Amino acid sequence: MQDQLAEILFYVKGTLKYKWVIIIVAWLICITGWVFVSTLPDQYKSEAKVHVDSSTMLQPLLRGMTIQSSTRGLIAVMQQLMFTRPKLEQVAQLANLDIDSKNEAQKRALVAKLKKGIEISGGSNNLFVISYNGDEPKQAQNIVHAVLTVFSEQTQQRGMNDTSSAQQFIEEQIREYEVRLKNAEKARENFNRVNSGFLPSQGGGGASLLNAIKQQLEDAQMALSEINSRKVVLARQLEDAMDMAGSGEVVDEWGLAGLDGQNQVSTPEDVQIAAFQEQINTLLIRYTENYPDVISIKLQIKDLQERRLETLANMPDEESTNSFESPYIQAVKLSLSQNESEQASLHSRMALLTKKLDETQQGMDTRLHIETEMQNLDRDYSVIKSNYMNLIKSRETAAMTEKAERSQGVLKFKIVEAPAAPRKPTGPQRELLNSAFLGGGLALGLALAFIIYFIRPTFMSTRQVRVVSGLPVLGSVAVQIKEGDKSDRIKQILFWSISASLLLAYIIIMTIA
To answer: Residue 28 belongs to what domain range?
Structure first.
């Protein structure tokens, strides 16, 4: 550590050996810099503080019905647009800078000067500071006023233009989607017309139709099996009844067996009487003999019995003898006949279902293809219709947003601090610049002296000789100055005088600035 410090000390001593270089370079730099700073024109800064408020009474009431603009995003765009040439030329006109009387080169120079001098800063809590650095106090104030005016106007116009542009775009899209929607509806209509009978809604649903036909065929087969079973039972009942009739036992009109087969003559009224008696038996299970329906049926049975007696009285003896047949047998034969009719109907239905099943299986590919195309048409139509309805809704939202903006405005500008003409110049920072030139001159002089010492190194002490050479130093010889030789002393005095004058000049300049 000591060796490193010693080496640094060697370089410091070697650099200070060329102290005249340091002081001369510092003087040259300081004189040049101080003269330059003194020639800089005074700058006057005027600023204004403005608060931008986007909150209105309509916002909470119209939330979800209108588009809520982003205040920060809108103001950021406005800040960028403020520094475009048209806006800066408008600022120059409002500030009475006579831009119209200037040629193109002068206009460009004036726009560049305004762009460099105007500054828009801040943004926290929607509080902005607009400032301008100019050569004249009144001019700076006028330019800040102009910037406030242009900034406020373009923000309002920006909101209106954005809404109008959005509405125009939505209207164009609605017209385009109306055409697409009509074409899609026409395509669906033509498709339904060409493929009538094969559509899912018309029984042409492919696999669903095939499954339905198979289910109907199974139901018909099950019903036929039930009818066949019922037919076997009815045939056995008829056979038993005929056997009893052949043996002398018959079944009377009340369903009871008897032996007087010769006196039993079948008439049309017997079947009706037997049916009514069955109804009476059913009703008597739940009601009494005085129930109105029971009394009414008994009256009807009495009328039928009277008609039966009249029929028997008018019937010839041979016909009455040959027409002997029990009402029970007639009922069984009637049920058997109905059973055979149902059986034939089911056979016919099964034949039609089998034929339809074969046709459906043969046209399955066609139906599946048609069903796929129908789904594609419906999907495209649904997407187009959904987008169309969303555009209609967006148009209403944009229209309401425009009305709300015209009623309340997008942004409200409130000037917190109006721009004023500065009484004292705010720039340039002459004290800082003069100090910078003084420090820069000394630093440049030290650097140049160090480079000279580095190029032309000199041993400054016996320790440095011993460190560099690695040899022991036995001693040193001092230089004796004669009393008559005073040049070195004069040089020392002159050096410190020049250094002191540099410091004094710096103090005077700082006082004047």
So the answer is: 2-41+427-512
